[in-house]
Amino acid sequence: MVIWFCKPSHGGRNDGYVILYFMSMLHKLNVRAVCREEFNVSVWRCPTFLFIVMGVATITGAVASSLFATQYADDPGVAALASLVVAAIIFTLGHIVIQSLTRILEASRMKSKFLNIISHQLLTPLTAMKWSLNALETDGIASDPKEREDIYRIFKENNLRMVNIINTLLDISRIDVGKVQLRPEPFDIAAYTKTAIAMHADDCAKKTCTMTFAPDDDIPPVFADPARLRIVIDNLIDNAVKYSRENAAIVVALKKDGGTVTFAVTDTGIGIPQHEHRHIFSKFSRASNVFPVEGKGLGMGLFLAKFIIEASGGTINFESREGVGSKFWFSLPAYTRSSS
Amino acid sequence: MATIVLIEDETALQRTLAAALKDAGHTVVTASDGAAGLALAREHKPDAVILDLILPKMDGFSVLEALKKDKTTAHIPVVVLTNLEGPEDVERVVGLGATTYLVKANYDLSDVVNKVEEVLPRAQ
To answer: How many domains does chain B have?
Structure first.
């Protein structure tokens, strides 16, 4: 195409060459593929393409206004200024329009991703419940009391799992519309942490990992919504177990420091790739290296945790190295009489 | 009756399907991750393998590929049982040599048992 562009002109065919050259550049930049794969829209509605069009329009506008100004203004400085102003206006307006379009397309993409993840997460417990009922209808299974009891337990567990998923979704939806109401009260974080560790002991044992609880003496209660804080503690411990390899060591610590209590979970798991750190508290965020270890998850746990902790007047953070492990912690104000 | 290796990490699904297969008279060997499942298939040389796709340690695609590349296990029919239903997943799995592709949520337990029995060597 460069050869075409350098050919001597033949009357009006130069325009055709320019268009062809432009199209070949688009082909080389693979704009079509980017528009299809990233935004799932045609080229003419695609921000990447429109950005290129905006660049061409800006340059054309600048050149045209410069020519126009040179013809009518005596001072070359005025011509240059006019050209600069026109280019800046075109660029600014174009940039605003493209940014809005990008945000709309991104929201649409997130919606599709959301539906895909949620459908998947709901299908598994739904299948488990259906198969449990099928099993209870099978004579050989139903007549064995131990089998029957096991299948009932599976049914109940998966029913609870569905309820938890729906509750998480409702919480996310309330966060989105700013209607989450926290009901803070004194909460014995040390006692619940102990319970949460016991609840995850089986999963940890299956992976032959060890979980140690290291609390300071006399941890005071914190002032937070108990139901929501339980979700945060469960999520952080659950992540540490899920993303640990065999024989990993997990340490859950509680420290008091003046008027705050800090909860921390340190694992020697798969860690989070450095370039994904900034997204880790975003909705649907799951590190790219989780899938060989644990395929399931909504990617909502840390988003919820950050919201709950910050809305409770606390802070949450983490440090992580891929292949080495992660440490997640949050700090909340200790309960005092003035808290309520 | 047949020996079947069931590779499924969801305890509830593994437990219910294994119970149904045993009730139908088959011997079932279970694994909860891809690497363990592949090892069991190589060890037992079963009559069929039931394989989930999203698995810890080694995903179902890699297990299927390894089974089909290994001369000693290439002949074993593999029933892929998953809730992934994208056309690209089906294409990939069929390309790798799976015998049947079933979407879990669309089948009753007895249907899954029937589909597995259809691929057993004696039924062919």
So the answer is: 1
Q: How do residues A252-287 score in pLDDT, each as one tens digit? A: 999 998 889 999 999 988 888 888 888 888 876 666
The separation between CA B87 and the C-alpha centre of its own chain, rounded to angstroms, equals 19
Which one-letter amino acid corresponds to residue A176?
A: D
121-140 in chain A: CB under 8 A from chain B: 123-128, 130-132, 134-135, 138, 140
The string of DSSP codes covering A10-42 is: -TTHHHHHHHHHHHHHHHHHTHHHHIIIII-S-
> Are B56 and A147 a contacting pair at CB < 8 A?
no
Q: In what order do the strands lie in the sheet with B100-103?
A: B27-31, B3-7, B48-51, B78-82, B100-103
Model's pTM, two decimal places?
0.66
Domain-embedded: residue B124: no
Domain that holds residue B15: 3-119
User: In Å, how far is A134's CA from the nearest CA of chain B?
Assistant: 6
Q: Do residues B16 and A154 lie in contact, with contact meaning Cβ atoms separated by under 8 Å?
A: yes
pLDDT in tens, B72-107: 999 999 999 998 878 888 999 999 999 999 999 999
Chain B: closest CA distance from residue A103 (Å): 26
* ipTM associated with this complex: 0.89
